[in-house]
Amino acid sequence: xxxxxxxxxxxxxxxxxxxxxxxxxxxxxxxxxxxxxxxxxxxxxxxxxxxxxxxxxxxxxxxxxxxxxxxxxxxxxxxxxxxxxxxxxxxxxxxxxxxxxxxxxxxxxxxxxxxxxxxxxxxxxx
Amino acid sequence: xxxxxxxxxxxxxxxxxxxxxxxxxxxxxxxxxxxxxxxxxxxxxxxxxxxxxxxxxxxxxxxxxxxxxxxxxxxxxxxxxxxxxxxxxxxxxxxxxxxxxxxxxxxxxxxxxxxxxxxxxxxxxxxxxxxxxxxxxxxxxxxxxxxxxxxxxxxxxxxxxxxxxxxxxxxxxxxxxxxxxxxxxxxxxxxxxxxxxxxxxxxxxxxxxxxxxxxxxxxxxxxxxxxxxxxxxxxxxxxxxxxxxxxxxxxxxxxxxxxxxxxxxxxxxxxxxxxxxxxxxxxxxxxxxxxxxxxxxxxxxxxxxxxxxxxxxxxxxxxxxxxxxxxxxxxxxxxxxxxxxxxxxxxxx
Lengths: 126, 349
Description:
- The complex is a heterodimer.
- Helices cover 22% and strands 35% of the residues of chain A.
- Chain A is an alpha+beta fold.
- Chain A has a six-stranded antiparallel beta sheet with strand order 1-2-3-9-8-5. A three-stranded antiparallel beta sheet of chain A has the order 4-6-7.
- The longest helix of chain A is centred in the C-terminal third of the chain and has 11 residues, at 115-125.
- In chain B, strand 18 (323-328) and strand 19 (331-338) form a beta hairpin.
- Chain B has a six-stranded mixed beta sheet with strand order 10-11-12-9-3-13.
- In chain B, helix 2 (31-40) crosses helix 7 (205-214).
C-alpha cells in the first residue's frame, strides 16, 4: 500500500512501491492558484534540497514557486502537465503529478504531515 | 472598504482580494471561464470602486486635460487624461456629457487625488463615490439590456432599468460591446441581480485584467503613471485636434515636445512564444542582448492561448515584428512586437 504525506507548502508526496516519491500540489493549492496555464518542472538528474524552489506554476494572474518537500534526486517529470497545465486543476493529486524523485533519506517523510494532520493544518488557515 | 455589492459577491462564492483599498472579487468560477463568458456571451463586473463625480464647468475642466470637452455634445462620452505640469498622467478617465451636467469616472486608486487636483485648480467637482457602477460586457450585452438599444459606442443617457434610475454609457474596458451602468448605491444589488437573471455571468478583476490586456488598454498604475508622457504610451489619439492648436492645457508643452521629437520609449504589445508569461517588471532585451525596456503588464491570453505583454521599449525597437527577449527567472523568453489590440475590438459603432 502506498503512503501519502503532505507539506505545509501544499505539496503531496506519495511513496511508491519502488521506493520513489511522487510529488504534486494539493487540491487546496490548485484551487488557490486558479487556472494554471504554464508549468516549469525540474529536469531528471537534478539534485534538490528540502524547501528548494524547483518548479514554477503560472496561473493567468501570477507565478508561484513549488518547493521540494524533501531532499533527493529527480528521476522523472510529468510531460502531460507541460502539454496540458489545466490537468493540474482537474486532477491535482493523481494525473496532475509534477515529478518523481529518489529521496536522499527515505526516513525524512516522518517530518511531513499525514492526511489528518494536513486537513487540520488547512482548517487552521481558514 | 466594501462596494454596495459586497454581500452579493460573497453569496456568489467570489474569492475576494484587496484592490485600491476595496475588497473586490478576483474571480467566481475561474478567470478563464469568466474571460470566455465575456468574449462569447455577457459578463457582469462590479466596478463600484471606481469614482463617479460630476462637474458643471467644462471650460475650467478643459484646462487640465488634452481632450475636447467643450466640444463634447450632450449624450456623448470621451476618454481623456488628467496631466501634471510635466505632462505626466495623473489619471485616465471617462467623461460623459449628460446634458445638465458632466460625469467623470475616475480610477479607484486615484479618485481622491483627482478631486484634490481638480479643486486645487479651481474646478468645482462633486464626488459621488457612494454610487454603484456595473459593467455589462460582451457580444450578448445588448441583448441583455434592450433598454440601452438606442445608444451607440461612446454615447451616454439616463434611463431606468427595472425601475431603477441609471446613468448608462455604451463603453467598457474589455474590447467588447457593452455598457457601464451607474446607479445609487442602494440600487446596485437589485440591478446586478436583474442583469444576472437575464443571463449575465459574474466576472471578477482577474478576467477584467486579462480582457483589457488583450484589448490593448492601459491600466493606470501599471502601464501609465505620473511619469508617463501620453505620447510614449501611444495615447496620441487622446490629444484632441482642437487642443493641438492652442496647446492651452496643463502639461501641454512636454506633450507637444514628445509629439514633435518622438518619445525615447514607446509602449508596445508583445506576443511571446511558448506558454510562460512575462509579468510586470521583466526586463526586455533586443536581439543583440541589450536591455531596451521593461514589461508593465503581462498575462496568459485565454483568447489567443499564448502569453502577451505590454511594455516600454526603446523607440528603435518598437516596430511591429521586432524580435525581443523577455527575461523571466534569468532566462530569455522569445517574443516579438505585435500590433495592438491583441484581440480586435468589437464596439457597436
